[in-house]
Amino acid sequence: MKKVFLTLALVFATGTMMNATTISEDVRKDCIGFAFDLEEIVGKMDYETFSAVVDLCEAL
Amino acid sequence: MLFIKNKKMKFSNNKIRLALVVFMISFTSVNGQKITSKVIYKKKSSTIIDSKKQKTSAGIFAKNMSRKMNNIEYTLKFNSKESIFSETSKMSLDKDNNSLAIKLSKLLGGGNGIFYTNRKLNKTYHQKEFQSEIFLIEQDIISDWKLTQEKKIIGKFICFKATKNDTYVGSSGNLIAKKITAWYTTEIPYSYGPLKYNGLPGLILELENDKAIFYATKIDLYKKNMIEIINKPKKGIKITQKKYDSIVINLAKDFRKKRLRN
Q: I want to staple B159 with a disulfide (CB 3.0 to 4.6 A). Which of B23, B183, B215, B260 is the partner?
C-alpha cells in the first residue's frame, strides 16, 4: 500500500515539474506571443507592462 | 508693599504663560507639517479568468500572478499639505523577486514608482523608471470626478462612490479608455488616495481600475510618534503626462512596426 502511495506521489510530483517546465519553455519560445496570450486573459495591457512582459520573458 | 510684590509676580506669571502658549503654538505648527497619517493598501487582481483559458500556459501564469499580487503592500503617508504613495512590501516577498510573475504582478494595475501630491502646488508627480530612464511625470490634481450617493462601509468608515474616465497607452500605441472607481470617506477629510488618484472630498480607501483593486488594510491617523518629513521625489526627467504619453505612443508604434516586419 505504502509503495502505491509513494509511486502515486512520485508520478504527481514529476507531472507538476514537467508542467512547470512546459510553461517556461512555451514562454521562452515566443515571448511576444505569450504577451498577447496574457493580454487575452487579463485584458489590454498598457505598453509599459506589455514591453516589460516581453523583456522579462526574453531575459529568462 | 506685599500687594505690589504679588501684582509683579502675577504679571510675570502671565508673561510666562503667554510665552508658553506662543511656544506651544509655534512648536505644534512647525511639527504640524511633519506629523503624518499612514494608510496601508493591498492590491488584488480584478481579472476573472475565463474557465476555457485557465489551463493554458498564459492562464496558469495569470493565476500565479494574481496570487503574488495579494502579497504586495503600498503605503500612503500624508499630512494637510502633501502625500506620498509607494510600494512597501515586506522583505519576504522579495525572496524570489526575480520571478516574472512577481515583477508583473507589481506592474499590472499600476503602482510602479513613487507618487507625490502637493495640494498647494495643485500637482501630482509620478517618479518611475522606464526604458532605463527615470521620469518625473507631472500632472494637475484630479478635478473631473463624478460623485455619486452610492455608499458602503469600509472598516468603520462610510465611503461614497466616485468614478472617472481615464486613458492609457495600449500595446499597439493607441489610447485605451479605462474606468476608475474610488470609494472615499469624508470622515477623513484629506483628498489623497492610491496611485495618482486624488482630489476627492475625502481619503480614498478603495480604488479599482480595469486590472486591480487597491484596498486599505490599516489606517493610522495622527499619532505623536508618527513625525515624518514627506520628501518630494526630485530625481528624473521632468515631463508632463501628455508629453510622456506621446513618447510611449511613439515607442509602442515602433515596437509594432518592428514586430510586423519580423
A: B183
Task: With beta carbons under 8 A apart, name residues in chain B contacting A27.
Answer: 57, 61, 100
Structural domain contains residue B10: no
Residue B29 lies in a domain: no
Q: What angle do CA B199, B203, B206 make, to 5 degrees?
A: 105
A1-57 pLDDT tens trace: 556 555 545 444 444 444 443 445 555 568 999 999 999 999 999 999 999 999 888
- Report the chain A residue with the minimal C-alpha distance to residue B168: A46
For B86-125, the pLDDT digits (tens) are 999 864 545 554 578 888 999 999 999 999 999 999 999 9
The mean pLDDT of B232-247, rounded to a whole number, is 96
pLDDT tens for residues B12-32? 555 554 344 334 333 333 444
CB contact under 8 A, B62 and A45: no
How many angstroms away from the CA of B213 is the closest CA of chain A?
14
Instruction: Give the mean model confidence (pLDDT) for residues B175-189.
Output: 97
Contact B74, B43 (CB under 8 A): yes
Q: Which residues of A touch B168 (CB under 8 A)?
A: 46
Q: With respect to residue B122, please indicate whether it lies within any of the assigned structural domains.
A: yes
Mean pLDDT of B3-11: 50
What separation in angstroms does the CA of B13 have from each of B26, B41, B59, B217? 20, 50, 76, 49
Evaluate whether residue B53 is within a structural domain: yes
Give the chain A residue nearest B51 (alpha carbons): A41
Using the Cβ of A31 and the Cβ atoms of chain B, whether some distance falls under 8 Å is answered with no
Which residues lie closer than 8 Å to B164 by C-beta, 6 or more apart?
Answer: B142, B144, B145, B146, B179, B180, B182
- Give the mutation candidate from A47, A54, A55, A57 for the B interface (greatest B CB count, under 10 A): A47
Q: Rounded to a whole number, what is the distance in angstroms from the first to the last CA of chain B?
A: 105
> Does residue A52 sit at the B interface (CB-CB below 8 Å)?
yes
